């Protein structure tokens, strides 16, 4: 019996549904080749932003408006607009009148159910014995579920119209009186499905005792995806994205200059995640790695490309840089205190406590005898609060904050003699000033901190010197270094 794959389709890809259908869901397959796959789908692009908040602009969604509502009903009006947007998506997907009626009825039932629930909760919390804050986590979970259920239901319906024996698998717990642990909910929902004859289309959100939103926020669909792979014993986990996992950002370096990564390992994936460029959510990667399930990242719109294979065992045959990546909008916090000598662990504990208190993520850190340096990702308001707290606790210290950029050269094995020198020389040749540099004896990444204005120039310089000038010319298939040339 063939082992199956578990595959996830992201929201941006889902918004180009005809291509998803042609390239991924069916993709030229017939009869038995259509099966032995489980698909986990995200909400259509933009829907979760409308339900929660826009994660890029901060524009409030239904959840944000409901949290701040006193007497107005703007959140309810936005639910109506969400329904209109979902109905538009339905009309674009379904030409058959019966299918369209089924899709619209599903949307109406879910959204009106949510609206009714929120109205009841709003009335309940008008009494002093009930506090809205105690229920907000549940509200966020419920709203997240709506977009995922819509896309999964539509996908299963569209596949059935194409003659595929698909099944809508709803993990959202809609009207389910029992809240199960995540693995139990998955196992229960998949039980009885013959993967050789049925194609399950599963919601990316799963209601469970652990509370996916409270733990992972917008990364919940990849947690669901990885747990399905683990529970079902998948042979491979596949994520379909709108881009390749490439040697650098093509928007900076140029599409003709970057190359997709043929193979790498979970260690490299962790480094990318730390930079905010997730191949997969780190919480999801842990489960796959522990069970020995390889992950493949594929481009939805290049179906004949094998994508990037990520596992625990891979290491390039010869040391080399695989990816140049980075991030802007980060802050360098430096605490210098002459009295720190011999007490660095005390200072370190206080810094960690303060950073956690204000919900800021530490990307990188470095200590010496009397200075603690933290590179953090967060908004300026939180960074200022951290600074003020540390100044009040250590009045004799000098604390400096600077907005910077982080650029990193990453690979499964970077133990090239002279790599650090070549890295610094490549930046010096482009007049890029390095504020700090950090690496470790494991040699999986070299991190460079520099002024934010020089971020893109640094990416181009390092990609040219460390990847383009080092790569063998003329190959189009995966080579021993794990890189794949474009085309």
Question: Would you mind describing this structure in some detail?
Answer:
The two termini are 35 Å apart. The chain is of the alpha/beta class and 487 residues long. The protein has an eight-stranded mixed β-sheet with strand order 3-4-2-1-5-7-8-6, sandwiched between helices. Strands 10-11-9-12-14-13 form a six-stranded antiparallel β-sheet. It is globular and about 70 Å long. Helix 5 packs antiparallel against helix 6 and helix 6 runs antiparallel to helix 7. The chain has two domains: 238 residues, Acetylglutamate kinase-like (Carbamate kinase, 3-Layer(aba) Sandwich); 146 residues, VC0802-like (2-Layer Sandwich), CATH 3.30.2130.10. The chain contains 17 helices and 14 strands.
Blueprint of the fold:
Blueprint: E1 5-9, H1 11-14, H2 17-25, E2 37-41, H3 47-51, H4 62-68, H5 74-93, H6 97-124, H7 136-161, E3 166-169, H8 182-190, E4 199-203, H9 212-216, H10 220-232, E5 236-241, H11 250-253, E6 263-265, H12 266-274, H13 282-290, E7 295-299, E8 308-311, E9 323-336, H14 344-357, E10 361-367, E11 371-377, H15 380-393, E12 398-410, H16 419-429, E13 434-439, E14 445-451, H17 455-468
Parallel strand pairs: 1-2, 1-5, 2-4, 3-4, 5-7, 6-8
Antiparallel strand pairs: 7-8, 9-11, 9-12, 10-11, 12-14, 13-14
């Amino acid at each position: 019996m063939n082992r199956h794959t578990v595959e996830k389709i992201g929201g941006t890809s889902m918004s180009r549904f005809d291509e998803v259908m042609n390239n991924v869901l069916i993709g030229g397959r017939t009869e038995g080749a259509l099966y032995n796959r489980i698909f986990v789908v995200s909400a259509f692009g933009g829907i979760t932003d409308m339900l929660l908040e826009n994660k890029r602009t901060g524009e409030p969604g239904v959840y944000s408006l409901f949290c701040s509502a006193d007497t107005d009903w703007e959140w309810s009006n936005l639910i109506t607009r969400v329904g209109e947007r979902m109905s538009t998506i339905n009309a674009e997907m379904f030409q058959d009148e019966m299918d369209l009626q089924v899709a619209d009825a599903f949307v109406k039932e879910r959204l009106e159910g949510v609206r009714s629930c929120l109205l009841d909760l709003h009335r309940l919390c008008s009494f002093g014995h009930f506090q809205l804050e105690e229920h907000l986590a549940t509200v966020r979970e419920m709203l997240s579920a709506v977009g995922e259920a819509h896309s999964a239901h539509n996908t299963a319906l569209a596949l059935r119209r194409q003659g595929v024996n698909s099944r809508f698998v709803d993990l959202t717990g809609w009207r389910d009186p029992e809240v199960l642990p995540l693995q139990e909910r998955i196992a229960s929902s998949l039980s009885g499905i013959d993967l050789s004859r049925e194609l399950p289309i599963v919601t990316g959100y799963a209601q469970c005792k652990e509370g996916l939103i409270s733990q992972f926020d917008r990364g919940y669909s990849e947690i669901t995806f990885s747990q399905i792979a683990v529970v079902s014993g998948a042979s491979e986990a596949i994520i379909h994205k709108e881009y390749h996992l490439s040697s650098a950002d093509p928007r900076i370096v140029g599409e003709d200059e970057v190359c997709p990564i043929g193979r790498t390992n979970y260690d490299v994936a962790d480094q990318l995640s730390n930079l905010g460029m997730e191949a997969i959510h780190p919480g999801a990667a842990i489960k796959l790695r522990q069970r020995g399930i390889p992950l493949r990242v594929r481009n939805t719109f290049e179906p004949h490309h094998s994508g990037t294979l990520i596992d625990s065992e891979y290491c390039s045959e010869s040391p080399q840089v695989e990816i140049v990546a980075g991030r802007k909008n980060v802050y360098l916090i430096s605490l210098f205190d002459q009295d720190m000598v011999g007490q660095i662990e005390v200072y370190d504990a206080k810094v960690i406590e303060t950073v956690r208190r204000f919900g800021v993520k530490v990307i990188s850190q470095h200590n010496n005898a009397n200075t603690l340096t933290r590179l953090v990702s967060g908004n300026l308001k939180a960074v200022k609060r951290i600074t003020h707290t540390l100044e009040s606790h250590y009045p004799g210290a000098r604390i400096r904050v600077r907005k910077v950029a982080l650029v990193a050269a990453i690979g499964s094995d970077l133990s090239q003699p002279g790599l650090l020198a070549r890295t610094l020389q490549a930046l010096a040749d482009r007049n890029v000033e390095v504020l700090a540099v950090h690496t470790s004896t494991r040699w999986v990444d070299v991190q460079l901190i520099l002024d934010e204005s020089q971020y893109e120039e640094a990416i181009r310089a390092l990609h040219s010197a460390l990847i383009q000038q080092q790569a063998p010319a003329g190959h189009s298939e995966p080579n021993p270094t794990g890189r794949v040339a474009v085309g």
